[in-house]
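Checklist before submission:
- one chain only
- standard amino acids only
- sequence pasted in full

Submission:
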Amino acid sequence: MMSPKAHGLFQTTCFLIVIIVPSNCRVGRTERPAVASHWYVICENRMFEVWGG
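Returned file contents:
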């Protein structure tokens, strides 16, 4: 069994792959020293912040 955290991350990763692959999206990380870096997704010039970490 996976831990709930690992399972949630796995589900999120699968969700992102399903969304990103067909629609010309990019995933990246913001690297701002003042705050924790965040993962984000850019689809059609719209940016979605996904989660912190």
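Reviewer check: The chain has one helix and three strands.
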